[in-house]
Amino acid sequence: MTKEKELFRPRVPGRVGMYVCGVTTYDLSHIGHARVYVTFDVLYRFLKHQKYDVCYVRNFTDVDDKIIARANELGEDPLSLSSRYCDEFHSDMAYLQCLPPSVEPRVSNHMNQIIDMIKQILDNDCAYIIDGDVYFSVDKFPAYGRLSGRKLEDNRAGERVAVDSRKQNPADFALWKSAKDGEPYWESPWGPGRPGWHIECSAMSAAYLGHSFDIHGGGMDLVFPHHENEIAQSCAACSKSNIGYWIHNGFVTVNEEKMSKSLKNFFTIREVIELYHPLALRFFLIGTHYRSPINYSMTQLDIASDRLYYIYQTICDCEETFHQHHGNDLKDSLPQDTLQCIQKLHLDFESSMSDDLHTPVALASISEPLRIINDLLHTRKGRKQELRIESLSAMVKEIKNLLGILGLAPSNYSEVLQQLRERALRRVGLTEDELLLKIDERTTARKNKQYDKSDEIRKGLAAIGITLMDSHTGTTWKPTIPHDVHEHASAM
């Protein structure tokens, strides 16, 4: 509300109530949605890491004009359709390693709470009834516009709000809509109908968190009208209603335009993770500060995927080294430079995350420890270091802990490496057998001293994002940034 960073002080010490506006379930979610829920998943994880007891509420809008329209197109029951897409959303969140919220209410299951709140708003003379519809009167709430900075005379009917000449003020918004033929409806004191879009979140947040709680979040597009209307109706129902902190993430853009279904410029989460690992998508999304816009491109996903591969490969190389030293007694002490590295990593990570959830800086904090780990693993000097295994073990443990806070710690790192390899091949249209044939062809060319041909094969694969690595045991491969993408990234 202040448009400034504020020190976080929860209403009840040690406990946090957080409400995040969920999806309207009429289609598969796109990566604009992914950004919202990855952002608040990171916040949820970090608050838990800070030892807060967090009640995280995230709703489903399963009753809405868009759901009804889509159900009519498909000849399906609206509640059946929305339930199906709730399940699809759960699958997407699992792919992205988003933790389940504490509570996940659906509009269809909270009609009593919604109706009770509308009654209270009417009793407080902040709404009026016309032909079975109930409208909120913005003129009765002088603070309207405080969150968005809009003046009441500048406001127009918001998204999902049809122009209606019956309204006392064009900015008035529906709390209850009277039933139309063929639409689902619920009984109410004003006749059969269903709730307007905004009232649901006020009623459900109050039901699980009370009228005053700590954090309310969502995408920046919800500031007006959705969150502005929530404030008005919540305060109209209970004068003591208050939200401690409003948090909004920036848009995902495509060619500098907001990604949205209405503009038909969106990519579903499913489409993206066909070619890129879900954790690469998550890495891409948290690689920009949550309040800044983020421009979607395959180039940026290539870069994110490559970085993730490097991190996981480093961890797997460590685990292989530990396996080789299995049974060896590890000493309790660590070299001073290792201790200093771990302490700096911990401090840098904690301070960047505490500074308005600055995930890009938090991710950058692991770069130097990863470099040191690779020196200890692969350089002659590093392999001779005293207490080398102890240093590797301590640093990897700390990095894994920090990756867990960011939601980037899979249960099996080697499995994800293999999945990253599989998707890299899918992106370039090769099977592993076809790639191995090319590697064999290059090996034969090298044996026959056809170095131009062997270089051509190597460069051709590098151009599409496959790097070959030669050793005394043969040639292996790994996915990397395609050569033209790498050149573009270096020039930026």
The level of helicity is: 40-55%
Give the end-to-end Cα distance, rounded to a whole number of Å.
Answer: 35 Å
Q: Structural class of the helices, strands and pairings?
A: alpha/beta
Number of helices: 18
Shape: elongated
The total beta strand count reads 13
Largest sheet: 4 strands, parallel
CATH topology of the largest domain: Rossmann fold
In terms of quaternary structure, what is this? Answer: single chain
- Sheet-strand content, in percent, reads 5-15%
Per CATH, which architecture of the largest domain? 3-Layer(aba) Sandwich
What is the count of structural domains? 3
Give the uncertain stretches in residue-range form. Answer: 157-161, 488-492
Mean pLDDT: 93
Assigned CATH superfamily of the largest domain: HUPs
CATH C-level label of the largest domain: Alpha Beta
* Rg from Cα: 27 Å
Strand order of the largest sheet: 2-1-7-8
Write the layout of secondary structure elements.
Blueprint: E1 15-20, H1 31-49, E2 53-58, H2 65-74, H3 78-95, H4 111-123, E3 127-130, E4 133-136, E5 173-178, E6 193-195, H5 199-209, E7 212-219, H6 223-237, E8 242-249, E9 252-254, E10 257-258, H7 269-275, H8 278-286, E11 294-295, H9 298-324, H10 336-354, H11 359-364, H12 367-378, H13 380-383, H14 388-405, H15 413-428, H16 432-447, H17 451-464, E12 466-471, E13 474-479, H18 483-491
Parallel strand pairs: 1-2, 1-7, 7-8, 9-11
Antiparallel strand pairs: 3-4, 4-5, 5-6, 9-10, 12-13
